[in-house]
TrEMBL record:
Species, as recorded: Sphaerisporangium corydalis
UniProt protein name: Metallophosphoesterase family protein
Ranges for region Disordered: 410-433
Transmembrane segments: none
Keywords: Hydrolase
Enzyme class: hydrolase
Length: 522
């Protein structure tokens, strides 16, 4: 604990809220993560093969999501295997203070994932375990992609890793996930004749699970073969029983809901009076919107979370690839709703998040990483190069000023802490020395095109940018704006800290602390 406290103290002094350098701008030294990568191949969402392999998302929206039916089969098979009936995990954390990591949306297998690893190993020293919150493997959760996207990057993390699946893990029917985390054999295939019903059309077009390459899988498992690394979770949803705290993980499938059996289980484990943290594949609050997570037989997950008898103090979800925190007042208490999806995939823009007011949360109490201004500046530089429009570039100071004007708040970092040098090595763009920023017509139109400012006519640029421009954008150079959570329980207080990974060597040595919250567990 002492080392993490010192790391947090240092991290406060070097974060993106202090200086441009802390955000990773003008990176002078590439991080050591490059040496960890198995190759220089970059994952891309732009290839037709990747998009076609990910088609189950669209099929589930058009013809119905089979996740609930398939999950029931997996859970029935696990019960027949004799797992704990409550799906309870009891790691050995001793009787005193303890800590663990939460990292979301990890599995691209390229620079954006490996950039998180050095900081994870530094902050993870002495932690009891790690939880991957959503999307362990992109694009389809295949068992044959776990080597370079799970076993290799975390081979030196010497504690167990648990996970809740994300929508991409479900694209192969959860076969890869269940094999790795539950040691479960594949479900017996069910053959059905073709029909013109929605389920029949879906079955014809649905991505089929890959057949495991057994020699390759056996070799991959040797990377995490130490006794201290071994753990088998009972099902795709579970409860981790800790001193004074329960960690409850749920499986939200492809569309973001849970089945009736899982709902009954969740109500049962939530009846325990101890404080709880929910880990979910999709966040309940995200981008100033509320997603309560429906339960198949009625009601919502958030109704359970908000029930005072359930005693939830936080709900952490992946799926969106950045960090957000919404402290929502529920009665006479506050529940921390957190998005933690910055563990290894492309970065979802934060500059498209409007001024926050959802759930009664005031904008000044909302936190995000990257800062909206840094997000706007980075995407301006990215698309300046792709579209060959030099005027589109906005320096970090210009991004901060524009977003603070649009949102109506004070810039979260002092303007003038850097020289405005563009992020990508070798890029050319206007360079502005520190000082006050005067907003020009060029800057306004650049922000509008990139979704940071509204258009003078009705056009949902912000949502379009989030849904398509972010998802079709990826890069292999700093700053990456990745993040992970360090969660600790010490002297009756729960602390949730968000540490950043920029891909620059200085931030690997001293991970920036971007946000923290302390919650009494009395």
């Amino acid at each position: 604990m002492v080392d993490v406290e010192r790391a947090a103290a240092r991290g406060r002094r070097v974060s993106s809220r202090v200086s441009e350098e802390g955000a990773g701008w003008s990176c002078q030294e590439m991080g050591a993560f490059q040496a960890l990568r198995p190759n220089e191949v970059s994952f891309s969402w732009l290839t037709p093969r990747t998009l076609w392999r990910s088609r189950n998302e669209i099929l589930a929206q058009l013809f119905g999501d089979p996740s609930n039916e398939v999950r029931r089969r997996w859970v029935a098979a696990r019960r027949e295997h004799g797992v704990d009936p409550d799906f309870r995990i009891k790691p050995d954390v001793g009787s005193g203070d303890y800590s663990f990591l939460v990292v979301g949306d990890t599995g691209e297998g390229d620079a954006s994932q490996y950039a998180v690893v050095p900081g994870l190993l530094t902050l993870g020293a002495g932690t009891a375990f790690t939880v991957v919150a959503s999307d362990v493997i992109y694009p389809t959760g295949s068992v044959n992609e776990y080597d370079d996207k799970f076993f290799r990057p975390y081979k030196d993390y010497t504690a167990p890793i648990y996970a809740v699946p994300g929508n991409h893990d479900w694209y192969d029917g959860l076969g890869g996930f269940m094999r790795v985390f539950c040691e479960a054999p594949a479900l017996e295939a069910r053959r059905r004749g073709f029909s013109l019903s929605p389920s029949g059309v879906r079955g014809l077009l649905w991505t089929k699970p890959d057949t495991a390459d057994e020699p390759k899988f056996a070799e991959a498992m040797t990377r995490r073969s130490l006794p201290a690394q071994q753990a088998v979770q009972p099902a795709p949803y579970w409860v981790i029983d800790l001193p004074g705290l329960l960690l409850v993980g749920i499986d939200t499938g492809i569309k973001g809901g849970i089945d009736r059996d899982q709902g009954a289980w969740l109500r049962q484990v939530s009846a325990d009076p101890r404080p709880k943290i929910l880990i979910t594949g999709k966040p309940i609050y995200d981008r100033n919107e509320y997603h309560p997570c429906p339960i198949e037989d009625g009601g919502t997950v958030d109704e359970i979370v908000r029930d005072p008898a359930s005693n939830y103090v936080a709900a952490i979800g992946g799926d969106t690839h950045n960090y957000q925190r919404y402290p929502v007042k529920v009665g006479d208490r506050v529940i921390q709703y957190i998005v933690s999806g910055g563990g290894g995939a492309f970065m979802h823009a934060t500059h498209t998040i409007p001024r926050v007011d959802v759930g009664g949360v005031h904008e000044d109490d909302f936190k995000c990483y990257p800062l909206r201004g840094d997000s706007l500046s980075f995407y301006s530089n990215l698309y300046r190069g792709r579209w060959r429009l030099r005027w589109l570039y906005l320096s970090p100071d210009e991004g901060l000023t524009l977003m603070s004007r649009q949102i109506g708040n004070t810039p979260p970092r002092p303007v003038g802490t850097g020289d405005g040098t563009p992020a990508s090595p070798g890029a050319t763009a206007p360079v502005r020395q520190g000082g006050p920023v005067r907003i020009t017509a060029r800057m306004r139109w650049a922000a509008r095109i990139l979704g940071g400012w509204p258009m003078p006519f009705r056009l949902p640029v912000g949502r379009t940018f989030h849904r398509w421009f972010s998802e079709l954008s990826d890069w292999d150079t700093p700053p990456f704006f990745k993040s992970l959570l360090h969660v600790s329980v010490q002297d009756g207080t729960l602390r949730i800290r968000c540490f950043a990974a920029t891909g620059c060597r200085p931030q690997e040595i001293e991970p920036p602390l971007e946000d923290e919250v302390a919650i009494p567990l009395t």
